[in-house]
């Protein structure tokens, strides 16, 4: 079956919690997300109640027309998830904050993250004028690859770098700040 990228539905809750509860098998959970939290270093498992709280927060923002979210589905299974949320830049309601796609590891390097981002970019036209995002990865080669992919294929421009921004497992992690005009 083909890959389907579509809007997030309330019925996706179980699939997303199941995907996120296996943090060793999901790429993209490598930084603090203001809604989802720090999933990669969380000491507890992603329980249904933890997942429910996070999912409800995103869904509430969608219902308030302050966010939009998408999933990628293959053979009826949700394999990736991402969202854009507004209101994170004070005085700038035209800026949407794009959250890095979270992708099941076995589907990495298949362009799925790019497809979700393209879907969200198109969907956000008219709602936002600018999308901003933050990239982070423990591996500098992986980070460079992500930066190049977002810049070349998706129209993002790097506007800032925060080296050694936070520490995980005794390793300092950089953040790359990027934006694109829609």
TrEMBL record:
Q: Where is the N-acetyltransferase domain?
A: 27-178
From the UniProt record, which GO molecular function terms apply? acyltransferase activity, transferring groups other than amino-acyl groups
Q: Which InterPro entries match?
A: Acyl_CoA_acyltransferase, GNAT_dom
Any idea what this protein is called? N-acetyltransferase domain-containing protein
Which organism is the protein's source?
Candidatus Parvarchaeum acidophilus ARMAN-5
